[in-house]
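LOG
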Amino acid sequence: METDLASGTLLQLAPGVNRLIAPNPGMMTGPGTNTYILGEKEVAVIDPGPAIDGHIDLICELAPGPIKWILVTHTHPDHSPAVAALAERTGAERLGRPAPDGQHQDKTFEPDRVLANGEIFRTAEFKLEVIHTPGHASNHLCYFNDEIGWLFTGDHIISGSTVVIDPPDGNMSDYLDSLERLMNKILAVIAPGHGDPMDSPYEAIDWIIKHRLEREAKVIAALEENPNSTSAELVPHAYNDVDERLYELAERSLLAHLLKLENDGRAAQDGDRWSLSMTVGI
């Protein structure tokens, strides 16, 4: 589903589903963070984005009704820092999960209500199922409106690219498991945290899973050819299809693959050096 990806304009994607893109384009954010504004008489906002005053002003100005709830998918700095100011202006209830320890986490997000996996968030106009989807972030949540089949995925699934899995909070095993669980839902559209809505949801999820498993195979091949290597030394071999300027980011996902292989009993580390496990293939 191709749309106008300019920031600053409220776009109706479906009845009761509007999107406002934050003005934070970049290599990691694409056109910017998607802020979803749900409902008409009483409004829920998903991921108000970074703490940019102009964007917060527009959320308040363009919301079709009073903002009663703010839902967060995860606490990375392009998704949740605007919550505090938006809640202060509107009195809205803040929902999500607290920031875990580690870098690149928004510690300013303090939910009024911590959401549990499988919980149903209801308003007079719609309901959302809360789905805990760790992998990109340990506290990551997706929100599923089963009445229209729309899944709001934050950074679990984005349009046009894959996401970085950055240990220790990012976990490749959890990520793949979370993707597999979403295949059991009756999906019509994926509404990602960045980019256009995706109206072939199962194809999109299947592509990500296949891509990750293909990358895992390349990591195994790199380990076979280059035993006792650091993750940085393995990047040019396992990510030889990626621009060298992205190698630092690629190393984070490569490490996530290595940790998954270790958990699977297929790789072992000695200090910061990695080799295939002696039991691999048995």
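LOG (cont.) second protein
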Amino acid sequence: MNPRALIAEDEPLLAQGLKNALALAWPELQVIALAPNGIEALRLAEAERPDVAFLDIRMPGLTGLEVAAELADRLNEGEPVPCIVFVTAYDEYALKAFDLAAVDYLLKPVGAERLAKAVERLKAQLAAPKEGLAELVSKLQKVMGAGPMDAGRGPGAASADATLKIIRAAVGNTVRMIAVEEVCYFQAADKYTSVVTRDAEVLIRTPLKELLAQLPQDRFRQIHRGTVVNLAEVAAAVRDDAGRLSLRLKQRKETLPVSRVYAEQFRQM
């Protein structure tokens, strides 16, 4: 059977351009769908199980990295794992993260020569024994471990001057001032972010991605696409019978699931 591919790109002209270029470089490849955003890309990847997924790094809803991480978290051991190629406008410095993780990528605008090389690599991967879920997770861990790669920024952490110290949250007619170290975890909630302390929960309008870049890197860690936890509030990391990891908190009853891609940082707990 001919290999099947998904293209996720929010710019229609770029999506169609890549599809046309692939038709020339790899006539046997069947492009089964063009996803206009990250959420649709994840839905299609789950439903159609393509052999190859070309994921734009910056898309509405979910980034290409988030789509790959969420897909890896939803797959079960033994299920087919797609070959993933990230399509990105990042400069050469940021692309070092992909090189270190042995993840293929295409730099916009995609040139015919570079695409031909990617096609040859993909053909070799598809002809060889299938990459497993563990290998995909390992690659994504290396890429994401290089630092934030969203909103047009390359790898790196926020400067000390940009570190957030106080959260201002409107509660009725009152503005509550919450010290960052008092927060147990942050959780994305639609267009808001839920700020959870030991005894309360409030909503703020700042997106979680924007908050993450301002939080102290030695204290707060992302554990899922929509969750950032205060490590000082973690009591234990626990695995269930299926091997899924979750965190128990010191002062809260709920447990927090940890995505496979972020689980490595709790391996010693």
